[in-house]
Specification:
The chain contains 1 helix and 14 strands. By secondary structure, it is mainly beta.
């Protein structure tokens, strides 16, 4: 992206100053998460998606169980549809030594429903329908013969209602593993549910790989 900066004043001999601004990655907000498509190669039953990115200049986040070296660092967002089985997201193929970390989140539809109904529409005659692969919530008013309906996009309010996915096994161990200064996380996905992946780093480039597991 090319940015133009205009500096003006009445007297160029006396008017001067310093311009300080941040040029952030487009996807440092979850509502602008970049979609990844999983594809199979040859006869393999494993579907994989790969992308290279950077978090330089990105907004800072806490992360899901992030280690101290990446907690509070810049993060950028990606999203992928669940396959209905085990999935993984990894930055282990990153060549750089700067630490990276991946957090996996999904929409909390219980909170999502209360946000829509309680905070956005206070008119009881205005039913709201929320649809997704995970849940369907409908409010209706029987006193109105032809109730008005509004379909709500599942991504519209996702930034405020994301929750970290469960990364703990039954034995209490974690599905998050380190590979040098980088990380991989495993989780059990639900088919067609959108999962949001936030990659944090200290500003260097990273290689993100997401896939299903045979």
């Amino acid at each position: 992206v090319l940015y133009f900066i205009r500096v003006s004043g009445r007297d160029l001999d006396e008017d001067y100053g310093v311009v300080d601004f941040r040029i952030s990655p487009y996807n440092d907000i979850c509502s602008r998460a970049i979609s990844l498509e999983l594809v199979t190669s040859g006869s393999s039953a494993v579907a994989v998606g790969r992308i290279t990115g950077t978090s330089e200049g990105a907004l800072e986040y806490g992360g899901c169980d992030a280690p101290p070296q990446t907690r509070g660092t810049g993060g950028v967002w990606y999203k992928v549809k669940g396959t209905g089985g085990p999935m993984y997201a990894s930055t282990c193929n990153t060549a750089g030594r700067l630490p990276t970390y991946v957090s996996i989140s999904e929409i909390n539809f219980d909170h999502y429903g209360s946000v829509i109904v309680d905070n956005i529409d206070t008119d009881p005659n205005f039913p709201v329908i929320i649809t997704s692969a995970a849940a369907t919530t409908t409010t209706t008013n029987v006193d109105e013969p032809y109730p008005r309906m509004r379909a709500v996009d599942e991504d519209a309010f996702s930034c405020n209602v994301l929750q970290c996915v469960d990364t703990e096994r039954e034995d209490g161990s974690s599905t998050i593993t380190a590979c040098g200064s980088h990380h991989q996380v495993l989780w059990n996905s639900t088919a067609s549910v959108t999962y949001y992946m936030m990659v944090q780093s200290l500003g260097g480039e990273f290689d993100l790989e997401v896939g299903s597991m045979a």
